[in-house]
Amino acid sequence: MKKLWSVCLIAAMLAGCLTGCGGLGGKNAGDAPAETTTAEDAAGAGTKAEAPDGSAAGEVVEIQFFHTTWVEGMLDILEEAIAGFENEHPNIKIVETRTSWTDAPSQLMTSIAGGTAPDLIMCNPSMLAQFRGIGALADMTDLVPQEMLDSMLPSAVQMVTTEEGKIDGLPQEGCNWALFYRKDLFEEAGLDPEKPPKTWDEFLECAKALTKDTDGDGKIDQYGYGWPVQAENATDYWVNFMQMCGADISGYADGQWQSKLSDEAAKQGTQIMVDLVQEYGVSPKSVVDSDWEAICNMFVEGEVAMMHNGAWVTGSVAEKGPELDGKWGTAVLFDGPERAAYRGHPNTFNIMEASKHKQEAWEFLEYFYNTASTRDEGLTIAGSFCNASGGMLYTEDFVDYARDHYNEYLQPFLDEVYDCYIPPLDPQWETLASMYGRSTVQQMIMGDVSVDDGLKTLDHQLKLLHGE
What residue intervals traverse the membrane (predicted)? Predict the structure, then answer.
C-alpha cells in the first residue's frame, strides 16, 4: 500500500524532474525536444520467427524499450544496434518509444500505475532514485557479470547499486563538471595563467583578485567566479558544495532514508556557497537567474573569470568566443575545504520489475555493451553510443580511449572521473528539490533567508517526506 501511495504521489510531482546529462563536449541532453515518437509495430509480431538457417524459432517476443535518445549520431548507432541484434535474435523484436527527458518521468509513472510499464528504460539520477524507491526496477545482480562490474568507474558502480547491495542497472552516457578559467584575465590580475587554483584557499585568493571594477564607475563588472543556479541547477550545485565539506546529505540506515541536512558538514557546505555572493562578493547575485548557457555567456564576455560547468560547455565556449582561442583553459575543480569532490555521474539503462521478458531485455543490453563498434576502433557499441554525443561511458576502457582521442580542454574532466560524487539517490530528494530546495537555495544566496533558517526548513521537509 505504501508503494502504491508513493506511485500516486510521485506521479503528481514529476513535472520538476528535468535533468538530463550532456557529455564531454556534447550538448546538454536536457535540451531534447519535448515530443514522443513510437516505433512502428513489428511486422508479423506474434507469428513464428524464422532462424538464420530457415527453421522456425518460436514466437516473437517484443521488448518495449522506452528511451530519451535524441542526438542524431546516438540515434543512428542505436538503430544500427537494434537491427544487428534482431538479425542475430530473430525471435526478439525491439519496439521503441522515444521521448524527452522532460516528459519521461511522468509518462513512465503513468505506465507503471496503469500496468503497462515498458521492459527496458533509460534513467537519469532522479528517475533512478524514484523508480528504485517504489520497487519498479528489476534486480539484475544475477545477470551482470563481475567482470563488467569491475570495469565500471566507482561512481558508476555506486549509481547501479541499491541500498541493499543489489545491482539494478548499467551505466550509459554521462558527464562531469570541472573548472573553466580565463587565462588572459588571470594574467591581467597578476596571477599565473598556467596555475589554476587547486585548493579552496587558492580559489578564494584567485576569485578575489579577479573581482574588479574595470571601468572605474564604482560597480563590479568582472567577478571572479560563476556557477548556474537557475531551476534544477540550484540544488545540483548546492549538493556539490555540501559534498566538498564531507556532507552525507541523506543517508540510508535501518531500512529507511534519513535527512543529514542538519549535520555540521551540510551547514558548512551551504555557508561556503552563500559566502561567495554575500561575504566575499566574488560571484554576482545574477547567478540565481542563470542556467549553464547564461554562465557560459558571462564567461565568454569576461563578466566572470572562472566558472564551474559541464564538459559539453567546452564546445560552447569555442563556438561563442573564437577570439578567445588560447586565452582560456580548463582544470580539475579545486578541492573543497574538507575534500576533493567532483560532480559527475552516468545515466543508466534499467530493466523494469514488471517486465515478463527480463532475460530477453538483458540479451539486448549484453549485445549492446559487448559487441565491437564498427564506427570507433577500440570501442563497443555502448562506447560509440556515448562518444557520438561527446559523452562518456563510465568504464576504465572508455577513459583510456578518451585520453588518446579527446582534446586538451577535455583532459581535466577525465582526470576527475575516479573521484566523482553522485547526487543523492534518496527517492524523495527530487520532490524536496522541486517543491522547496531550488527556491530556498536561491533565497539563501540572495540573502533573503539565512543559512540556518533555510536548512532548518529543508531538513524538516525532507524528514516529513521520509516519515521520520
Answer: none
- Domain edges within the chain: 2-175+344-421, 177-343+425-466
Task: List, for residues 240-267, the tens digit of each pLDDT value.
Answer: 999 999 999 999 999 999 999 999 999 9
Burial of 440 (0-12, 13-18, 19+ CB in 10 A): buried
What CATH code is assigned to 2-175+344-421? 3.40.190.10
What long-range pairs does 183-186 form, CB within 8 A, spacing at least 24?
183/326, 183/327, 183/328, 183/329, 184/324, 184/327, 184/328, 185/210, 185/222, 185/302, 185/305, 186/210, 186/305
Identity of the amino acid at 304: V
At 132, phi and psi to the nearest 5?
-65, -40
What's the DSSP call for residue 144?
S
Cα(205)–Cα(199) distance, integer angstroms: 10
Run of H or E residues at 357: none
Q: How many residues does the chain have?
A: 468
Q: In which residue are the cell numbers 529543508 written?
A: 458
| Domain topology for 177-343+425-466 | D-Maltodextrin-Binding Protein; domain 2 (3.40.190)
**Contact (Cβ atoms closer than 8 angstroms) between residue 97 and residue 35:** no
pLDDT score for 398: 97
- In this structure, are residues 137 and 95 in contact, taking their beta carbons and an 8 Å threshold? no
Is the model's pTM score more than 0.70? yes
